[in-house]
Amino acid sequence: MNKRTAQILLFSQISKMDIPLVGGKGANLGEMFTADIPVPDGFVVTSKAYYDFLKKTSLKKKILTELSGLDVNKSKDLMAASEKIKTAILSAEMPKDLAADIKKAYHTLCGENDRFVAVRSSATAEDLPDASFAGQQETYLNVKGFDDVVKHVQMCWASLFESRAIFYRTDKGFNHMKVGIAVPVQLMIQSQVSGIMFTVNPLTNERSEISIEAAYGLGQPVVSGELTPDQYIVKKNNWDISYKFIAKQTWQFTLGGNTPVSNAYQEAQKMDDRKVIELAKIGERVEKHYGMPMDIEWGMENNKLYIVQARPVTTLVFQDNSDDLIVDETKHPKLLLEGLGASPGVASGAVVIVKDPSEIDKVKQGDILVAEMTNPDYVPAMRRAAAILTDKGGRTSHAAIVSRELGIPAVVGSLHATTMLAVGEIITVDGFDGKIYEGDVTTVNDKKEKIISLADLEIKTATKIYMNLAEPELADEMAMRRVDGVGLLRAEFMIANIGTHPRKFIEDGQSVEFTQRLAEGMEKFAKAFNPRPVVYRATDFRTNEYKNLKGGAKYEQDEFNPMIGFRGVSRYLADDEVFKLEIDAMLHVRNKLGYKNLFLMLPFVRTVEQLRECKKLLSSYGLRRSGNFKLWMMAEIPSNVILLDDFIDEGIDGVSIGSNDLTMLTLGLDRDNEKVASTYSEMDPAVLKSLEKIITTCKKRGITCSICGQAPSVYPELVEMLVDWGVTSVSISPDVLEKTRRLVYEVEQKKLKKMKPKSKR
To answer: 530: closest CA among 584, 474, 597?
Structure first.
């Protein structure tokens, strides 16, 4: 079976490497199911089915029209666009072949009689280590019958364009049309008790503790924050319950909807200590399987525990030495309310009470957002708020997770905040201790709690992780991240910022000025990342791009297809004066400023002869390969693949695969031409064979081999191939740094397990 073309996949056919097809939720459900973790069975309507639906119904154009020019900070405009898109999706007809496949899978899952299922949304960019996407799409419980399942699959598709989801993707820099959606359909657990479990204390970052929340009935009210659940902290070393908070629960969500809890059970512990510990041990199993702390949704039916969802914990807390606010005890703070600390930090501000998402525009920068409960629809306002305070909810509700991701102090489950506090009243919110004080009682402390990705703290890979960068202003900020260096420093962006064609500088007698300005950009990167390597890719402007620079029209001719025209090394050999300016800038940074971590990469080298002649030029400029200077070459042309041994013989230290151009030229298409764009795929067998040949040849010859571009991030299955073949590094854009690091880590761990010798009995 070809998974990539499948519209339906069973849980038993899915692993955690299938995120592009089944999304984060779907991949984790399949992974756990096959690992014999107690997960209810099901199937997934893949993202392939969703994209086919958009294509067959011509909805893509409608969606893009509605999103074009949309200011997501204007709530009314955002909500209006969302409704139009959702209506269009729901009004379109489900393809008949897909409907038939869903029917078949549902009946196979249920047996002779229709059964209740949960229909969940699983976006293909969700549950990543540096973005939770918590609650952005919908989940529907207690769905029964084929027609209803098909209807709710389509409703899940539509939920990809909820206003909150549009806002979140825009805020995180995700392309709306590149975030697909799959739909897991899973047998319902009619839970007597359910809730959330974190295999790390989400508030204190304590790895030796498991946090469990529990409530009567199905878990949706706990996830959404409608109920304040019981809280348990379990120690992993001895399985002691070190903390217990029993919440009063007057109602529960069941198959029959919201039903009352009898008086005798309202203030009782929701599950006994024995079951709490049993659940904690299952959580530890899940954590060990994934090799990282996990956020888990669970349920208990007929006294048996089930896991219904799991995702990596996206945010944890660490200590820093910068300034932050704490409660000043010398001001004798007056306690107004108490709740559960859900997101660490202290903040003060004016109270703004928000009753529903339509009122979020009331919240201005620095206000305290007070609501009965928060949900992802509130995210635009949460970003402006100094702190969040709710009547209901637990520490692991979706809203609490998002608060921690945003780094906003939050207190949940205060019971009476919306009724006891007055609009405009100044209060102080302590997200550590869950306390609310009258007035501004803050002071500055020298230790600050920050929210960062778990991956930044722990994950280490044998494969080096580099960044693709271009903007010198970002150098210092990016260098602070845990990264092995800059694998692709693009010359074009720095020259574009200079704004004038280098030929005009030469003509005007200002060559030195151009060199100085370019050197300034190089210096910022080399200094910020020193001693980590910075690989500068010499200019690969195409004629149409060069033409846009000041004076460019004079020096650039019109080409029918600039993508395969006068670019890369061909330019240097034809016009070595411009190339010399770049090398002069590099020599200044390396020799005069002393940053020996700056290396050179040559782009679009068509022939071995071109490489030879270019190296002669470099030698004449005073730049030669040595122990402290490395020369790399882009591998992006079929000739680079076919004659790679010859290129290596000519003398290079490393190869960086330009997967974008390599794919384009291998398949014989212009990647800028939308009429053939559908054929463009880094996963085409011809491209994969080229990648394998490059990597294995470099490995055999003992030189480094990297890959730059988004392919490893877009196709998780490709990461496994790259690591298996022996790639030494990947270089990616900063926005997918942690996502890629985790993918590489998981593949390396999988490979190590395969290599580990089996013990003899």
So the answer is: 597
Beta strand pairing status for 241-245 and 42-45?
A: unpaired
The domain defined by 323-454 folds into Glucose Oxidase; domain 1 (3.50.30)
> Rounded to whole angstroms, how far apart are CA atoms 740 and 99?
35
Residue 623 has which token pair?
């730049």
Rounded Cα–Cα distance for residues 609 and 421 (Å): 77
630: closest CA among 642, 618, 640? Answer: 618
User: What is the rounded (10 degree) CA torsion for 123, 124, 125, 127?
Assistant: 70
Q: Say which residues have a Cβ less than 8 Å from residue 507's Cβ, sequence separation at least 6.
A: 551
| Residues 441 and 333: beta-carbon distance below 8 Å | yes
How sure is the predictor about 725, in pLDDT bands with cuts at 50, 70 and 90? very high
User: pLDDT, tens digit, for every residue of 126-159?
Assistant: 444 444 444 567 888 889 999 999 999 999 999 9
pLDDT of res. 495: 84
pLDDT value for 691: 96
Report the Cα–Cα distance between both ends of the chain, in Å, rounded: 36
Q: Please give the structure tokens belonging to residue 474.
A: 């970002």
Asked if residue 336 has pLDDT above 50, the reply is yes
CATH code for the structural domain at 193-312: 3.30.470.20
398 is catalytic: yes
156 catalytic per annotation: no
**What is the structure's pLDDT at 314?**
60
Question: Where are the CATH 3.30.470.20 domain residues in the chain?
Answer: 193-312
**CA 618 → CA 520, 577, 706, distances in Å?**
21, 12, 23
Please tell me which residue in 614, 698, 705, 708 is annotated as part of the active site: 708
Q: Which position has the token pair 């959606």?
A: 181
Question: Has domain 459-755 been given CATH number 3.20.20.60?
Answer: yes
Q: Give the three-state DSSP class for 308.
A: strand
Instruction: Give yes or no for residue 116 having a pLDDT over 70.
Output: yes
Angstrom distance (rounded) from CA 409 to CA 430: 7
pLDDT of residue 594: 92
Region of poorest pLDDT, from 493-507, 629-643, 691-705: 493-507
Of 152, 398, 501, 588, the active-site residue reads 398
Per-residue pLDDT band at 177 (split at 50, 70, 90): confident
